[in-house]
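pasting for ref
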Amino acid sequence: MRGHLCAIALALAAVLLAAGPCSDRSVEARAGAASGTPQRVAPPVKPPAPAPAPQPQPADAPTEATLGLPLFPGSQYLTSYDAGRGQRYYLFGTTAGFAEVVAYYRSVLKQKGDLVFDEPPVHMFEVGRFREDTMVFPPGVTVKDYTWGGLQGYLNPTPGAKPARVPTVIQIVPAPAAAGEPRRLS
């Protein structure tokens, strides 16, 4: 089970890194790491974020009903990617902090989840059985902190969108719907 989680987390990291531009600081840290010089950047201490304001959603934004999973209040739909085998990765951004988002999903999903990476913090909640023959990624919710190490946040892919960067990204991967069967929120 633990090995499976590590493989999943690495796949997630690849998707999020491919999807998200990095800052100059993260490039410098990677360059230092590549040269053999250990680079350890402590996450900045930030005051708690104000309550997230509801964001207008595009007309084609997925909903809790279509995803079959709860959305963090005030989160903003960013984009989605084809995962293969009838699955998609749906990315949502929020101005709320990582710990607040993780606490929300612990409460609504009624499970602890797993902190799969400490640096940068990535927390996963698996909500369905992974079927290797029909799925690429287990159904669930993954939360990642994009302010770790002094980063400014995940760049909003919509030009001119507010906020321009979000500190926390939520990846939702619904279970593939059976033919003709709608997804349902538990």
